[in-house]
Queue: 2 jobs
Job 1
Amino acid sequence: MWRRVYFLLILVRIYFALSPSYLHPDENFQGPEVIAGRVFDYPVLETWEFTSAHPIRSTFPLWLAYGWPMYILRWLWEGFGYDVSPSVVYWTLRVLMLTLSVVMEDWAVHELVQSPRARRVAVPLVASSYVTWTFQTHTFSNSLETLLVCWSLVLIQRIVGDKKRSGILASSLLGCMVVVGVFNRITFPAFLLLPSLLLLPHFKRKPLSFVFLTLSALFAAFIAICVDTASYTPAEFTFSSVFSNPVITPLNNFLYNSDSANLAQHGIHPRYQHFLVNLPQLLGPAFPLLFFLRRSHISPILISALSGVALLSIFPHQEARFLLPAVPLILSSIRLPYNPQLRRFWTATWIIFNLALGMLMGVYHQGGIVPVQMNIAKTNETVTHAFWWKTYSPPTWLLNGKNQELTTVDLMGMPGPQMLDAVKISLPSCRTRKPPKIEGKGATYLVAPRSAYFLNPFQDPTKRKEISLEEVWSYRQHLNLDDMDFGDDGVWPTLSRVAGDRGLVVWRVTRNCWATEAPA
């Protein structure tokens, strides 16, 4: 029975993987956008993490995760004489992350949970989590970190459990995996610090395993530093620059995050944020079950999860996605209620929670951004400016080269009057009561949620407004959760506005010159 449920949940995972929701800008700007610009020469926007004097993001794990599929696509498409469309790259990477989740994550859970009875609960639980459906099928560094943590624990378990063999191969793989994990995210060691202590007796008995682990780690670190130094050195790369002026991104990242002033720019949270807010948000009804675990249920994977959360709680900047590696580990460790009625109630609550969060985060959350960018990339109209208001930052690499002539401006949550001032500066055309007189070339687009009622008066051509908005295209499955004005509008009116008028709209902006003229 549980296998049928599991295969059904794989279909659910496929559905969410192929939905264009946009969970966080980092899923593009800290991964695919950087590599796509270098493989396909797309005009891209590299964020400060990659452009500062001391870059804090390594390109090494990005090449390992996204570089090879992009090169394969380029080889295939160029072989037939075509250019690779960014939309093809985007969906290929989604399918890649889906495959990694289904194969590597589920396989790791299958190995980490050794009891067949517990495995029949753990595998479906992980597969039915909205975190698995959404975050793990997106191109987050946190998603890659989850896979690396799980498989590092698998290797540790194999090394410790097999006392007859030396474990040289597993130790060598572990050394490489740890380096990739650290260069991917410096939070990675937090989840392995305590479980790695289990290796000490093995290394004492078989020191050759430790030697191979160290050598493989040093070799992988040298390769990673070479890749980063080559990526961030303006001049031609030589091996001598690795020794004279190496770029060690994990060190830069650690130094940056050790400064509380730097973290304050990204948001300061209370120390309990991870345990009391983020973890319940990710686990839902599974979170209370942590408090009913017996001592016999405490396992290395649970220790890995809880110690990782505890260590990450030391740092004041705490986002829920930082805890992604803990989710499959905790879900593989909890025990469902023994009482049949309570278990049925819990199962119903678990299903409702994950379906609700799955639809919200996997379909509607900023779900129009990617489709809008792909639509702008295909439009035949010449567009010179695209202003994005009350949305996440759009991934410019999806514009298929149009950003060479199109300027994308992210206005974020700027107040309405200031937003209009910014848009009016770049307006290329002017509309009068007579036939339109074009002053300049190209159109100006404003992309904003339909729930932004501030724009409503500008959509009525009968009103004497300085600008007019003409709807060009829209995408219905879009919710803007960052536009919740509960204090000003009240709870129900705000929810009614945001959910009832959901959708992301592309408006063509034109200037009404007659609106500022005095009546005759």
Note: The mean pLDDT is 90.
Job 2
Amino acid sequence: MAAHTVTPLTGGLLRLSVPLHHSRRLLAVAAVAPEAPAPTPPLSPAPARKGYFPKRGETVELTCEALAFKGKGVCKVEGSTFVLLCDGALPGERLLARVRRLRRGAFAEAAKLRILEPHHDAVEAPCPLAADCGGCKTQSLAYAAQIRHKHLQVRDLLVNFGKFDPKRLENSEPDAILKPIVPCEEIFRYRNKMEFSFGTKRWVQKDLKEKDEEEGVEQKTNETDGYSLGLHAPGFFDKVLHVQKCFLQSEPADKVLAVVQENWMDPTLGLTPYDVHKHVGFLKHLMIRTGRNVNTGTPEVMVNFVTSCYKPDLLMPLVDNITKIPEVVSVINNVNTSVGNTSVGEQEYTLYGKPSITEMLRGLTFQISANSFFQTNTKQADVLYKVIEDSVGLKGDGSEIVLDLFCGTGTIGLTLARRAKHVYGYEVVPEAIADAHKNAKLNGIDNATFVQGDLNKINESFGKEFPKPDIIISDPNRPGMHMKLIRWLLEVKAPRIVYVSCNPATCARDLDYLCHGVEERDLSGCYELKSVIPVDMFPHTPHIECVCLLELR
């Protein structure tokens, strides 16, 4: 097996190098220096401890210098150059942490125990569970600082992984490649879908107090008896943190959650949570989706109970209470008999109202069923799709062929179809392709063709069933594009490619391949990177979306 090496990079970055044939398993840790005033040097600075090497289980005092990709804090012991990645640590913060894992001597992972001194951009997190559930890792970091760090992460990844010239990425000229990040207007209540899990035991995060420091180190969490409905504790598939309200979902969705919480543990109802170890119990998940009535613009809420078997009589008391909320127009029951933790059922039943809700995006109407994929932040998706449209730059005369790779339910391709000659979409999930056809028909679009196929397994015949595209849109999932698809793109040589990415690390890698080639595979790059526009879709999380325009040289 080929060796994996970790190489220090400029700006506090770490890069894990893997053999090319393992590129889909790339681990990228990109850290950026915080934009804070430089502290005044101490009168007697501590000597550098270049030889410092932490021990597992050791409690250390750290200073967080930057944020790494995926939201971990890049921390160091004073006077040392050794990097410890700590979840929940924020730039400028001084903290106490416990060393958990050593990564081949190159860096370590630590668990945050206690804040000794707050960071530069500290704000009070409105959610009391923000530090515990893991859904909003940076809620206590001012939003302006959040997007600043996200922008810098994208920049450093493009330089160190994409091998792009930093002078061309950022300059004062209009043709600078890296554009300012597009912020999110609404930083709370922006999610149109939340999925909560039922659990057999309630997971409680203990407060770490100075007088109980040793106890806190040895026993960071406490599991107490009692049913729970909420979000999984970070790192655990079987531990559920009880959630009464969530600041990310809509207010009508919060009303639904409150009604369910008030009623489902009533012993007279006979409802039990599913035990993932014993494989017994009834309730598995509660999914709440929010859409809009296309005629009135008022919210529409779908409630989906995922259960281990079909017993509608058990659910009806909950349904009766939920449907008193005027925004609730649909109650669904997905039945999942498998022992797995998925929320997708083998059978689906409508217990109340209609089987789907609707939403508007870029002037089009979309039907959303219980298991449909749809952009989770509707308002910011509208902004994202406008950025994509501008990057695609259709002439508008109906002469161009658009190829939409990883098209999902067809949302991007359908928003472009009315200005294109024809849109061809490819997606591996058959249910998503079925929804794409429904959405095209719903909006009266007849110049869009959607095909089910795995873009990671394309062969020599791929591309023969459609004309040569003028514009290719690629919106892959987090692992990025397979080398087979990279090779095909370099061979077909479409005039423009718009790469939409939810993972800037694999995005930078793929941009490097398309622009600079892959020497080990005897592939020559033939594209020039014209622009990269980061878009913040999910405030208080480490996730970043990027829209990248490439033009054929």
Note: Confidence is low (pLDDT under 50) at residues 1-48, 206-224.
